[in-house]
TrEMBL record:
It comes from Aquibacillus rhizosphaerae. Residues 6-120 form the Tetrahydrofolate dehydrogenase/cyclohydrolase catalytic domain. One of its GO terms (molecular function) is methenyltetrahydrofolate cyclohydrolase activity. This is Bifunctional protein FolD. The lineage of its organism: Bacteria, Bacillati, Bacillota, Bacilli, Bacillales. It catalyses: (6R)-5,10-methylene-5,6,7,8-tetrahydrofolate + NADP(+) = (6R)-5,10-methenyltetrahydrofolate + NADPH; (6R)-5,10-methenyltetrahydrofolate + H2O = (6R)-10-formyltetrahydrofolate + H(+). Pathway: One-carbon metabolism; tetrahydrofolate interconversion.
Length: 284
């Protein structure tokens, strides 16, 4: 089988066009959705993602504000900034770019953001709501993945979904969202023994490990759906995924590329969550 490639970039573009119309109508009612991104330190990869977010906000008409702070910023200073953003009526979404410098406790920061403005969906209240199957801000990458599957009418119910990776921001929540869609979910991770026995059996395989070419065609079942969440910068400066694309494409039914796959959907769901927050704030 030769897989159909799912271009998240194309779906993202059409969703952003719909959102632009929605924001135009909100603006006519005097509502301007606002996202504030806080970037600490000068990691070039982080700066590149943040630029992508700004561009997408501009296109859709979401008011975006970038606060760049030096890596010497203390935890207390960041907490004070978050307190101010939490009560700022023009700010509907707050995103603190992760990872943070070592001297700042990430969990304390995540829990300081108001759950009502937690457009990343990382606050324990929002994670709890998601696990309970309630509507809330879903983490952007997992939500983007579900949206991509649905856009291709790929059936999730009753399918064997295997997640490789168990991070709090991708692996764990994508498994939860797939479970909410009635998949049978298995998590694989660094301590899993004989991982291939699981991956080869997956109908839907989500790979979020952060290691270039961690899996290849031989690990994949004929006709599987392969979602590659890897964002690995190679020595030549190019991005590559966690899956060896060509060999996997030769076996899968669907596969996502890197770049132009999951990444653009992550940003799109961030916009979705920000607009949702603005609507909720204004009781719409
Ligand atoms: N609080 C927080 N929330 C995040 O959502 C978050 C974060 N911290 N820290 C970093 C990661 C990474 N991330 C990406 C988003 C989009 C692309 C993306 O759109 N990539 C393009 C290519 C971009 C390029 O070429 O550099 C693509 O895949 O086509 C990549 C990576 C969000 N993250």
């Amino acid at each position: 089988m030769v897989a159909e490639v799912i271009y998240g970039s194309e779906l993202a573009e059409s969703l952003r066009e719909e959102m632009r119309e929605e924001v135009t109508s909100l603006r006519q009612q005097g509502i301007v959705p606002g996202l504030t991104v806080v970037l600490i330190g000068e990691d070039p990869a982080s700066q590149s993602y943040v630029r992508g977010k700004q561009k997408a906000c501009d296109f859709v008409g979401v008011n975006s504000n970038l606060i760049e702070l030096p890596s010497s910023t203390s935890e207390k200073e960041l907490l004070e900034l978050i307190d101010n953003l939490n009560v700022d009526k023009n700010v509907h979404g707050i995103l603190v770019q992760l990872p943070l410098p070592k001297h700042i406790n990430e969990q304390i920061i995540i829990e300081a953001i108001s759950p009502e403005k937690d457009v990343d969906g990382f606050h324990p209240i929002n994670i709890g709501r998601m696990i309970a199957g309630k509507d809330t801000f879903f983490p952007c990458t997992p939500f983007g993945i579900i949206t991509m599957l649905k856009s291709k009418n790929i059936e999730i119910e009753g399918k064997k979904a295997v997640i490789v990776g168990r991070s709090n921001i991708v692996g764990k929540p994508v498994g939860q969202l797939l479970l909410n869609e009635n998949a049978t979910v298995t998590y694989c991770h660094s301590r899993t023994k004989n991982m291939k026995q699981y991956t080869i059996d997956a109908d839907i395989l989500i790979v979020a490990v952060g290691k270039a070419h961690f899996l290849s065609g031989e690990d994949i079942k004929e006709g599987a759906v392969v979602i590659d969440v890897g964002v690995n910068r190679q020595e030549n400066g190019k991005l590559t995924g966690d899956v060896e694309f060509e060999s996997a494409k030769a076996k899968a039914a669907y596969i996502t590329p890197v770049p132009k796959g999951v990444g653009p959907m992550t940003i799109t769901m961030l916009l979705h969550n920000t607009i949702k927050s603005a609507r909720k704030f204004h009781q719409l």
